[in-house]
Design goal:
The complex is a heterodimer of chains A (719) and B (423).
Chain A (H helix, E strand, L loop, with lengths): L1 H8 L2 H7 L14 H10 L13 H13 L5 H9 L5 H11 L1 H15 L8 H13 L4 H10 L2 E2 L7 H5 L4 H13 L18 H8 L5 E5 L6 E5 L6 E2 L10 E2 L16 H24 L4 H7 L7 E2 L2 E2 H15 L7 H11 L4 H16 L19 H13 L4 H9 L2 H4 L9 H9 L11 H11 L13 E17 L20 H7 L18 H5 L7 H5 L4 H15 L3 E16 L19 H4 L18 H9 L1 H7 L6 H6 L6 H13 L5 H12 L4 H14 L1 H4 L3
Antiparallel strand pairs in A: 1-3, 2-3, 4-5, 6-7, 8-9
Helix pairs in contact in A: 1-2, 3-18, 4-6, 7-8, 9-16, 11-12, 13-18, 14-15, 17-18, 17-19, 28-29, 29-33, 31-33, 32-33
Chain B lengths: L11 H11 L1 H18 L7 E7 L23 E3 L6 E3 L3 H4 L5 E7 L6 H10 L12 H8 L9 E4 L16 E3 L17 H22 L2 H18 L13 H7 L3 H15 L3 E6 L8 H26 L5 E7 L2 E2 L11 E2 L3 E6 L7 E3 L1 E2 L6 E3 L4 H11 L7 E3 L5 E3 L13
Parallel strand pairs in B: 1-7, 1-8, 4-12, 5-6, 5-7
Antiparallel strand pairs in B: 2-3, 4-11, 8-11, 9-10, 13-14, 15-16
Helix pairs in contact in B: 9-10
The chains are: A mainly alpha (719), B alpha/beta (423).
């Protein structure tokens, strides 16, 4: 009996089949083509246990976490349960696909994949650009095409952030492009031939040569950074470390094979039909807009762009220069080579392109790829389920490379919906079944999801206390001025040296935290600053500066630079400081935003990084899922969990705890729904009551219960 | 499924392994390996702990450890005599001057990079930055090789970030201490939660978690239980007292100075006393392109009492024998004072202060030319500093570890210990 209760508590998948009435009758629904492909791939494998699909509420929790990156609210649970049992799974998937948070969650996926760092040049714009692409369900091949081929400045062409992320360095980009978009590890071949593998060093150089004419340029005047195309090929053969007498330019060559089909396969035919229909629709739109000229476009931008900047009429300059660029193409030259490369990479006949992406998405939702590590496709490392992988890849292509279609295919399958194996299953069967996807391995929420789930479970996204209910006395050490002196000629305010942030040069938040000059701010490790994605994509008002350069004389530019420097060298006051403790009172009414719009990756000691968000510095810098002591400390003692546990006076929970409508049973059930997305069983209600009654007050007891639940396995690991 | 060749560079590993076995090891690896082995035998490997003061921004070598009195490059500070015969340092360090008979100076570090980011990376990891691989910092390497002693984390970084552990893994990351002397909120129950209540919560959590872990039986859940157990163990450890620097006498606190750097040095001492292997104390603000006199006067006033007290206290307690103290920066600064009364980046030659851990006292290794512009004697490559630290601890700097992509990497980028430094 105890055993059964435990399963009800956590292993909902099995227990609910026996007890509660929320049975998802597997037989009532035909397995999808994906499930059939998985089954076909599993033919002949031994030791497999096929675990039934999980119950409706467990499914709601799993799919909500995977699609919008947080657990469902009680309101969402109620709405879901009001839908008829035969429809609710389909309905909730459609609803979540349209949720604004879908783009937030899947931007995290892309940020990992593309190694987006908001502190890198163009990183913020790249993040915002990807977010918009996910929101609009931009075809993935288009997205990849733009990322691979774009030249220009991030504020104008945000896709260039991908190339800028590796400093437009041909060798790094060759490695990153192959591994990111095709799942092929060719980077090792930069230094040596692979004895037992496909790639030679010469092939690597040929591939790198596609990036060999791209230049990263920093404007001496505006300091802005952009990429453009040079004339010289910088990738030379033989490699420098062989110390050859002379080196010659390498001819770009695509080393990966495209399949040559005798007949157009149906998925490509479907893709082409889809594309033709879209093209026809677009053609209609464009003809309606014919006649737009540059003057109109620039003028129409006036609403957001401040025309006047200093003594220049920026808009006039911009018009002049845009025309010049259109005709002469002297800045931001398009990369012919990378356009060609992008064509080849994104060609539907390039199986690596679609399969490696599908494999990544599968891994994100199933905890394991068909190919592992997810970016190591090779003959020596074949997929575990070739039919299923091919099926998903073909469907992905046919859908017009729609991420949403792909995700939907996965979450509506039985394979996605299976439960976990119980503890008494042998290790052999567990390994075999989980690898075969007939049982779902235990999977932890990723750091952003965990953070946002604590926030939503604890009602921290809105203020849950009345004003003045949380006035506390704070003590902090501050720096106070004890003297001052006038300083002439000091060039710009002293910048924080790279060192205080360590070798990694983390972002401004890290500077703030790491800076010994700001005592008292050492431990704000659970909050961060959000980025406004829309603003990041809005052209800045200093935008036309770079275009203006082209028409200015050298003397003009130099004079402006000197004037700017002189302005920075104005007399400043230098203060002398000492440290002092001060006490102050503040209404500490907690409120937390979503972690998915923060500067990313977060500074290293931050909650998100501690829970495995990758630094994204190098290829293969994947997310960590392993538990650590620091994680435990942050969850046990952190402010986030603490504030989420406390029962705020404005929370629905409060009304069930205090006053005429108080109902402890209902309160406990609400806690279970809000934190575990399920109802408690009788034993759990009794246990919860004992916990609450053991505390000094019911409210404190409820906080204890919620704290324990938030810290428990069942919260952190998906059902 | 558990094939070892799941990662990249398949096959390459084997051939390279074979190659290493026959060639490079016998030339470099064995040589240094022998040296370290000998150091172990002769008792040269004395260091058990390291305290690294990282001075970010590029600390002027001429205004600190390598003064050039009477030369046009002297700058605003005089040279003063020290307790070590014939060794002079800048007048910024009058107290430390009295401890110089315990210290070794290297005055001939030949850096290769004048860019903050790249040089910092190089000085902290011994490697040059590379697009495809990130290398671990010195502290991570040390704790990868030397076991933890006591309850506290083996590697602690104060007032800022230490470099990452990279391929050495999460276990080798530094434990972060934001501000020395301030309570780390994560080491105690949240404000308002009494010990009794907190412990009661932990009891219930333990019960609930083990119930859930027993039902599911996944390794992950057990690992998570272990993490909670470790965390609670640390929260309850008496070793945490090491963080309470206000338990020191006001006299001691005063000696180290009322600054984060001073408190950092004091905390570092207490941590080392508790068994912590590697402490990094960070200080920024050395990128003095202008007004270097004011800036360095301020730095000196803060650093001098802290470093001097630390060396003196470690010596009194006997820990200096086992503890290496290092002051390091990513590069030096230009010999010429610029038009803004500052100095700019200068990597060609710069200096480091070291003391303890089996190093000679009152010793100067290498020199720069008369203007402090280039190395004159015994130029020191950056990896050799790392190799020296490791050798002092009995670690072979040429030992190889595997990256996740199965690429063998040496602990130090071809460094050789500077044997002349050892006492």
């Amino acid at each position: 009996m105890t055993q059964l209760r435990i399963r009800q508590a956590f292993l909902t998948s099995l227990a609910v089949l026996l007890t509660v009435g929320l049975v998802w009758a597997e037989s009532a629904r035909a397995a999808t083509p994906l499930d059939r492909a998985i089954a076909a791939d599993n033919q002949g494998k031994s030791n497999l246990t096929v675990v039934p699909v999980i119950d409706d509420l467990a499914y709601l929790r799993r799919v909500t976490v995977d699609l919008i990156g947080r657990i469902p609210t009680d309101k969402e649970i109620q709405q879901y349960l009001r839908w008829s049992p035969s429809e609710r799974r389909g309905k909730v998937v459609d609803k979540l696909m349209d949720d604004a948070r879908f783009a937030d969650r899947w931007t995290v996926f892309f940020a990992d994949m593309l190694r987006i760092r908001t502190r890198a040049t163009g990183g913020q714009q790249l993040l915002a650009y990807v977010h918009k692409a996910v929101r609009d369900d931009k075809p993935y091949d288009e997205l990849a095409h733009e990322l691979i081929s774009a030249n220009g400045k991030s504020s104008v062409t945000p896709a260039v952030g991908f190339v800028l992320g590796d400093n437009a360095e041909p060798m790094a980009l060759a490695g990153a492009t192959a591994q990111t978009f095709m799942g092929i590890r060719i980077a090792c071949a930069e230094c040596h031939d692979h004895p037992f593998d496909e790639w030679t060093q010469k092939q690597f150089y040929g591939f790198a040569a596609y990036f060999g004419k791209t230049r990263r340029v920093q404007s001496r005047f505006s300091r802005s950074i952009y990429t453009t195309e040079g004339k010289e090929m910088t990738v030379l053969w033989p490699p420098e470390r062989q110390k050859p007498e002379s080196r010659s330019p390498v001819e770009p060559k695509f080393p990966f094979e495209l399949i040559s089909y005798k007949q157009t396969p149906s998925h490509i035919a479907r893709l082409e039909a889809k594309r033709r229909a879209i093209a026809a629709r677009e053609a209609g739109k464009v003809s309606a807009e014919a006649g737009v000229d540059i003057d109109d476009l620039v003028d129409s931008a006036n609403a957001t762009v401040d025309r006047k900047r200093g003594d220049f009429d920026v808009a006039a300059e911009a018009k002049r220069d845009l025309r010049k660029i259109n005709t002469q193409a002297d800045l931001y030259t398009e990369s012919q080579l990378r356009q060609r490369l992008a064509e080849l990479v994104t060609d539907p006949r390039n199986r690596y392109f679609s399969q490696s992406f599908v494999n990544r998405v599968w891994n994100e939702m199933m905890g394991r790829g068909f190919v592992n590590p997810i970016d190591d496709f090779s003959n020596e490392n074949p997929p575990s389920h070739p039919k299923a992988l091919a099926h998903l890849a073909d469907e992905f292509i046919a859908s017009g490379y729609s991420l949403k279609s792909l995700v939907k295919l996965i979450v509506t399958s039985d394979t996605y919906s299976r439960g976990h194996l119980s503890a008494d299953v042998s290790n052999k069967v567990r390994m075999a079944s989980e690898n075969a996807f007939t049982a779902t391995p235990i999977r932890r929420m990723i750091s952003e999801v965990l953070y946002d789930s604590v926030v939503v479970a604890g009602h921290l996204e809105e203020l849950k206390w009345n004003k003045g209910e949380n006035v506390r006395t704070f003590r902090e050490r501050i720096r106070v001025i004890i003297g001052e002196e006038k300083v002439e000629n000091e060039p710009e305010a002293p910048k924080l040296p790279a060192s205080v942030t360590g070798a990694t040069g983390d972002n401004a938040m890290a500077n703030k935290m790491a800076n010994g000059q700001k005592p008292g701010k050492g431990y704000d490790l659970e909050k961060s600053v959000e980025i406004d994605f829309d603003k990041a994509l809005m052209a800045k008002d200093d935008e036309p500066q770079i275009q203006m350069m082209a028409v200015k004389s050298k003397e003009q530019i130099e004079a402006e630079r000197m004037a700017a420097e002189a302005a920075m060298r104005r007399q400043r006051t230098r203060y002398q400081y000492t440290y002092k403790w001060r006490e102050y009172q503040r209404d500490d009414n907690p409120q937390y935003g979503t972690s998915m719009r923060m500067a990313t990756p977060a500074p290293r000691p931050h909650f998100l990084r501690v829970f495995g968000q990758p630094g994204r510095e190098e290829l293969g810098d994947f997310r960590e899922h392993a538990p650590s002591m620091r994680q435990a400390l942050m969850m046990l003692n952190g402010k986030l969990t603490h504030e989420a546990s406390r029962v705020g006076t404005l929370e629905p929970m409060h009304r069930l705890m205090v006053g005429p409508k108080a109902n402890l049973d209902a309160a406990i059930k609400l806690a279970y729904r809000e934190i575990y997305t399920r109802e408690p069983n009788a034993a759990e209600v009794a246990e919860a009551k004992a916990i609450i009654k053991d505390a000094d007050s019911d409210l404190e007891g409820m906080a204890d219960l919620r704290w324990v639940m938030l810290n428990s396995h069942e919260f952190r690991y998906l059902p | 499924m558990s094939k070892k060749n799941q990662n990249g560079c398949r096959g390459y590993r084997m051939t390279r392994r074979a190659m290493i076995g026959t060639t490079s090891a016998s030339i470099l690896g064995m040589h240094v390996g022998n040296l370290v082995a000998r150091a172990n035998e002769t008792g040269q490997a004395k260091a058990e702990h390291v305290i690294l003061f990282w001075c970010g921004g590029g600390m002027s070598h001429i205004d600190t450890w390598d003064p050039k009195p009477g030369r046009p490059t002297q700058g605003p500070f005089d040279a003063i005599k020290t307790s070590a015969d014939g060794v002079q340092i800048s007048s910024l360090f009058p107290e430390l001057a009295k401890q110089m008979h315990h210290a070794t100076l290297i005055r001939s570090i030949a850096g290769t990079n004048g860019d903050h980011g790249r040089a910092t990376y190089n000085l902290q990891t011994s490697y040059a930055p590379s697009g495809n691989l990130r290398h671990p910092g010195l502290g991570s390497v040390v704790v990868h090789e030397k076991p933890r002693t006591g309850d506290l984390p083996a590697y602690i970084s104060i007032s800022g970030q230490a470099p990452r552990a990279a391929y050495l893994g999460q276990k080798c990351e530094a434990y972060y201490v934001g501000a020395p002397g301030e309570r780390d909120p994560y080491l105690a129950f949240p404000e308002g939660i009494t010990k009794v209540r907190g412990n009661k919560r932990l009891e219930i959590l333990k019960k609930m978690n083990s119930r859930q872990a027993n039902a599911i039986g996944a390794k992950d859940l057990k690992a998570n239980d272990q993490a909670v157990k470790d965390a609670v163990g640390l929260m309850r450890s008496p070793a945490l007292k090491a963080f309470e620097i206000d338990k020191e006498s006001p006299e001691t606190l005063g000696r180290y100075g009322d600054s984060d750097f001073g408190r950092g040095a004091l905390l570092a001492r207490r941590l080392v006393e508790t068994g912590v292997r590697f402490v990094q104390v960070n200080r920024g603000g050395f990128d003095n392109h202008g007004n270097i006199e004011t800036a360095m006067t301020n730095h000196g006033a803060i650093m001098d009492p802290a470093l001097a007290s630390l060396v003196a206290d470690l010596n009194t307690s006997g820990l200096l024998k086992k503890t290496m103290v290092i002051v390091l920066s990513e590069f030096g600064r230009t010999p010429r004072v610029n038009n803004n009364d500052g100095r700019d980046h200068w990597a060609r030659v710069f200096s480091s202060f070291m003391a303890g851990g089996g190093l000679k006292g009152g010793f100067v290794y290498g020199s720069s030319d008369e203007d402090g512009a280039s190395p004159k004697d015994n130029p020191v490559r950056v990896p050799n500093i790392h190799a020296t630290v490791l050798a002092a601890m009995g670690i072979n700097p040429n030992k190889e570890v595997m990256t996740p992509l199965e690429r063998p990497m040496k602990l130090v980028d071809d460094g050789e210990p500077i044997s002349a430094l050892f006492a």
